[in-house]
Amino acid sequence: MISGALDRLTDLDKRIIVALQRDGRASWRAIAEAVGGPVTTVSRRGQQLIADGVVRVAAVPALGADGPFDSFFVRINTAPGMQMRVAETLAQSREVRFCTVVTGSYDIIAEVIVRGGATRYPQHVAELQLIEGVERWRSDLILHVYKVSFDWGRQLYGELLGPPDTVEDEAPPTHAACAPEHFDSADRAILSALRADGRETFQSIAERLGMNESSVRRRFERMRTTHCVDMLALVPSAALGMAAETFMTVTVRPDRLDDVARELSAYPFVRYLAVLLDQNALVCEVISPSTAELYAFITDSLAHLDGVQGWTSSMELVFLKRGFIETPWWRSQLASALPDRGAIASA
Asked: 222, 311 in Cβ contact below 8 A?
């Protein structure tokens, strides 16, 4: 259903999506005020966007909630015709934070979270590397995250929002304040409910868990204030007219690595930016309205940054998972791209 829903999106729908990216739990009244529409219309359209799978709102514990961790940027080659099967299996793993099928020299790009530190990497990934169809597996330790942007749609409707909703300089010490001992079973149960539906009311959660509404609200607000929970609004880029999602590995002169990273972080269409252990390189995820604008960014900006030595790029084709949450549209996206096998057989 999502394909047809995307074709019918209005300007108001897109504004609602951007507002949900900003705060997935904002009331429909607050969103209506932000987008300049009637509350009843905004509420009806917003709920329809969620029902159609155009938007999925979810809450997940911050990475530090399960203790110390390290992140690995993984690039995979598969046997011919096995890309989607391998990607689907990867996406089902709790260790995989994001997973996408791409163009270029690799077939799949993913991020694997190793809880307990990098020394546990072999035990964590041994099973993943044995997935049928995996032929080559390359892992790079992510040393430092400079930027994670949760509201990339602000490129189009920035006037709706306040300061950018980003996490910058996502170093391990930031997560140390969010430790397992800061959660009890009730906190985990609340987050479990909000993982399934990030907009479920506190009253509904309270009734299901046998708690009172004020306690559920207070616990959630505490977790959010202490940055122990991430609110996600997953949206296909096509919903906002973004036609080019690209992962770039940018090699940089060592003495300019930090400077180049901070310059790239300033670009609103840079959604994710981190430094890798290998090859004095940055991994940069760029989202732009068209390949023409991607070309302009590469030729007019990236190519002229002092210290940049080169780059390789992969266009994202199908994004199966982001922020530990499966995207609600990838299956229908894939189905709409494939021919009707029954029709072919009867032809």
From this structure: no
Query: What contacts 183, CB < 8 A, 6 or more positions away?
Result: 61, 65, 191, 223, 228
Averaged confidence pLDDT in the chain: 88
Question: Which residues 6+ apart lie within 8 Å of 217 measured at CB?
Answer: 202
Residues with Cβ within 8 Å of 187's Cβ and at least 6 positions away in sequence, in order, are: 219, 223
Place of tokens 């290998």: 278
C-alpha distances (whole Å) from 98 to each of 167, 223, 347 are 17, 23, 39
Q: Which residues contact 285 (CB under 8 A, 6 or more apart)?
A: 245, 246, 247, 248, 270, 271, 272, 273
pLDDT-derived band of residue 126, with 50, 70 and 90 as boundaries?
A: confident
Of 252, 258, 245, 254, the C-alpha closest to 302 is 252
> What letter does residue 256 receive in the DSSP assignment?
G
Q: Whole-prediction pTM value? A: 0.87
Greatest mean pLDDT among 3-12, 103-112, 149-158:
103-112
Share above pLDDT 90 across residues of the chain, in percent, rounded to a whole number:
69
Give the tokens for residue 82. Answer: 């096995």
Instruction: Calculate what percentage of the chain has a pLDDT beyond 70.
Output: 88
Task: Return the minimum-mean-pLDDT range out of 4-13, 76-85, 140-149.
Answer: 4-13
| Contact status, residue 140 vs residue 72, Cβ threshold 8 Å | yes
Find where tokens 């549209």 sit.
Answer: 329
